[in-house]
């Protein structure tokens, strides 16, 4: 009997891979091993509707229990894999169990990054990546009046919006010179910074945090310029550390992520890596990418499932992302790094606009605030390496559809 | 609770009970109805939960919101009765609702 396919990591990517394998007719065993106690769930709401209390936990599950039974997916939750034994083609769990595989999929995601700030390990300092962490944060916010968030990326800003909805005083400190510095253009980052200030968030940029203060538990932060700010709860929202330790220890090629090809295959032909943990070469962007997004988790999982079932993939997506903050929807298509020209469509003052970013005349990214047509059209234009006329793009009377014909 | 009939593009029917307060998309996911991907989980960000509402039910499901309308504008095979099922909230008045699924999502 075949050992089947083992998937380490039961997040969106791992679950999507299991489902895609079954959809493609793979009949052998599929074992989905998750370190967390919860069954596969949606992470995006953890910082949004779940944290603000609008969405109960039972609406987070990606699949009902019957799915795993019907699809014959052996879901093992609360099980930590401690080693990949490539020679014997098996994984070892913390409890010493050995699970054999024919093919292995690594979808270990990552953990919230904890920067080396003095006081970062004090009680009262939270991070947000998992459901358990969201529950801990949510519980703490229920007892708190003032929240300090370190980092103004997506997680930091979404939590800021959710905490304001819950009536807390919120301050956000960002070391870079704009909000969402890693992914967004200066105009968009500045606009979102102003948005949060308008909702009463004390958002400061160029504001590094020197230390988290407190004797037995966190009671505030000290900024790099010496200012002290009080807090009942401190959230570290400073990015993700990819979960490469198993892959690295097994000798797979890694470099800020597990390196994979267009089939999501690692340097071992029987091992694949997908989702937040995987780094692949993008022909579209001419460099290697490691994407932290739902879309990437789902699509790269499908690529791996295709390759495993004998249909080679050539994974080269137009990345897309979304964020909900207050009553706004931000949708981003593509990546702005390397852009040399920006075209604005619509008026930011009116609360809905799109920013198109070009490199050498080719559209490479679009940031859309409450502007779904621009986002949807941009996905296709970027995939086609199109060169839409900037003057027509600026003209809101020209419908986005017209750029697709 | 509302009884909802999902009809796949192949004609296969799924008649299921969906709790009030959930969306028509969630009713499909929870009852293993194939053909609705819902990649973004109901955030109206991806247009992969497209359905056709039976014309007799269009008045009761209501019309599209503007964001939904824009997203659908770029989905494939969109018709007058197209909706994103993550944007239809289930209530008692939708007991008996019939929706049809497209050949493909996206």
From TrEMBL, chain A:
GO molecular function, one term: oxidoreductase activity, acting on NAD(P)H
Record-linked Gene3D superfamilies: 3.30.390.30, FAD/NAD(P)-binding domain
GO cellular component: cytoplasm
Cofactors: FAD
Domain of life: Bacteria
A Pfam entry, by short name: Pyr_redox_2
Alphabetical UniProt keywords: FAD, Flavoprotein, Oxidoreductase
Residues passing through the membrane, by range: none
InterPro entries: FAD-oxidoreductase/Apoptosis, FAD/NAD-bd_sf, FAD/NAD-binding_dom, FAD/NAD-linked_Rdtase_dimer_sf, Reductase_C
Domain Reductase C-terminal span(s) in chain numbering: 320-403
Limits of the FAD/NAD(P)-binding domain: 5-301
Protein name per the record: Pyridine nucleotide-disulfide oxidoreductase
Taxonomic placement: Bacteria, Pseudomonadati, Pseudomonadota, Alphaproteobacteria, Maricaulales
Automatic annotation (TrEMBL), chain B:
Co-factor requirement: [2Fe-2S] cluster
InterPro entries: 2Fe-2S_ferredoxin-like_sf, 2Fe-2S_ferredoxin-type, Adrenodoxin-like, Adrenodoxin_Fe-S_BS, Beta-grasp_dom_sf
GO molecular function ontology, one term from the record: electron transfer activity
A Pfam family matched in the record: Fer2
One biological process term in Gene Ontology: P450-containing electron transport chain
Taxonomy, superkingdom: Bacteria
Keywords: 2Fe-2S, Iron, Iron-sulfur, Metal-binding
GO cellular component: cytosol
Span of domain 2Fe-2S ferredoxin-type: 2-105
Family assignment from sequence similarity: Belongs to the adrenodoxin/putidaredoxin family.
Protein name as annotated: 2Fe-2S iron-sulfur cluster binding domain-containing protein
Organism, scientific name: Alkalicaulis satelles
């Amino acid at each position: 009997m075949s050992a089947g396919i083992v998937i380490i990591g039961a997040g969106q990517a791992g679950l999507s891979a299991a489902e895609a394998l079954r959809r493609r007719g793979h009949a052998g065993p599929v074992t989905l091993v998750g370190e967390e106690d919860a069954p596969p769930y949606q992470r995006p709401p953890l910082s949004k509707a779940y944290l603000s209390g609008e969405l109960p936990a039972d609406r987070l599950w990606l699949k009902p229990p019957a799915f795993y039974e019907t699809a014959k997916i052996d879901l093992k939750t609360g099980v930590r894999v401690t080693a990949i034994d490539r020679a014997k083609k098996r994984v070892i769990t913390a409890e010493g169990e050995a699970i054999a595989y024919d093919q292995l999929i690594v979808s270990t995601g990552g953990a919230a990054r904890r920067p080396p700030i003095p006081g970062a390990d004090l009680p009262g300092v939270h991070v947000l990546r998992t459901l358990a962490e969201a529950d801990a944060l949510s519980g703490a916010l229920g007892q708190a009046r003032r929240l300090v968030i370190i980092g103004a990326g997506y997680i930091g800003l979404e939590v800021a919006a959710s905490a304001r909805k819950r009536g807390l005083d919120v301050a956000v400190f960002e070391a870079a010179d704009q909000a969402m510095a890693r992914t967004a253009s200066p105009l968009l980052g500045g606009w979102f910074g102003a948005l949060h200030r308008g909702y009463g968030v004390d958002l400061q940029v160029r504001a590094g945090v020197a230390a988290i203060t407190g004797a037995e538990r966190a009671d505030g932060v000290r900024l790099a310029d010496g200012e002290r700010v009080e807090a009942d709860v401190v959230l570290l929202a400073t990015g993700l550390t990819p979960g490469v330790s198993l892959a690295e220890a097994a000798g797979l090629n890694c470099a800020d992520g597990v390196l994979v090809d267009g089939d999501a295959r690692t340097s071992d032909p029987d091992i694949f890596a997908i989702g937040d943990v995987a780094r692949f070469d993008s022909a579209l962007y001419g460099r290697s990418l490691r994407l932290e997004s739902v879309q990437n988790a789902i699509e790269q999982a499908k690529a791996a499932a295709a390759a495993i079932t004998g249909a080679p993939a050539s994974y080269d997506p137009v990345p897309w992302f979304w964020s909900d903050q207050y009553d706004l929807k931000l949708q981003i298509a593509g990546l702005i790094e390397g852009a040399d020209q920006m075209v604005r469509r619509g008026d930011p003052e009116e609360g809905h606009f799109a920013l198109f970013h070009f490199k050498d005349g080719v559209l490479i990214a679009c940031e859309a605030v409450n502007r779904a047509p621009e986002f949807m059209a941009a996905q296709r234009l970027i995939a086609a390496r199109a060169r839409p006329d900037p003057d027509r793009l600026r003209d809101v009377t020209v419908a986005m559809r017209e750029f697709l014909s | 609770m509302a009884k909802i009939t999902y009809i796949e593009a192949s004609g296969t029917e799924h008649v299921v009970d969906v709790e009030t307060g959930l969306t028509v998309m969630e009713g499909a996911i929870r009852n293993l109805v194939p053909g609705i991907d819902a990649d973004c989980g109901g955030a109206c960000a991806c247009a992969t939960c497209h359905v056709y509402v039976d014309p007799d039910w269009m008045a009761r499901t209501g019309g599209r919101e503007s964001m939904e309308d824009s997203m659908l504008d770029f989905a494939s095979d969109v018709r007058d009765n197209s909706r994103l099922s993550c944007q239809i909230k289930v209530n008692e008045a939708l007991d008996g609702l019939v929706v049809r699924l497209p050949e493909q999502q996206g």
